Amino acid sequence: MAEAYRVGTRKSPLALRQVVEALRAIKASFPDMLIEVLPIDTYGDKDKDTPVSDTEGSDFFTREIDNALLEKRIDFAVHSAKDLPDEPKEGIIVAAMTESIDPYDVIVSKDGLGLKELAKGAVIGTSSKRRKESLKKFRPDFNIVDIRGNIEERLELLDNGAKNLDAIVIAAAGLIRLGLENRITQKIPINIIEPHPLQGCLAVVIREQDRGLLDIFSVLNKHEEAL
To answer: What is the pTM of this model?
Structure first.
């Protein structure tokens, strides 16, 4: 297999770790496969103001990568599965979806306090509608504020006292992939916040016309929602 394939990804440290994870599994079965990683700026990464809750189900984080795929500047892309739009762009299909490395949401708090121990009116940062609604249902006194940015940027907001944050809620999978498990204060029980069904899973997308690649990416496919 001498042909080189180009894989598209977001530029964040987490996205690049996810590509390494996927490629490690692919090359275990296809050691001679040549792959070039092409990081791509996405609108969702450049726009630090729009709450993610306003964009859920859209191509906010995948649009530019989808375009690169359709324009044949890349041959496939690796995404966080929960970033996929509800309606895939015409001409693009999901080739594989991995198992979740950890589906839970977690709290990272400034003083090592769990959800029950946080002070009344504690300020919690998140941008997910699902997380906001669940947190307010659990404790109506919480002050929920929008935060944006990659995981390192969100941790920095907490550590630097931005927005008077007492805690942030993020996905366990991202911290695990970045080797930051030590920052987890508490895994949030599912009866408090039910995780996104694809949280912690990776998705590989290809052009619909390139179905011959399905055999290659089948080594990753562990999820019933993948084609």
So the answer is: 0.91
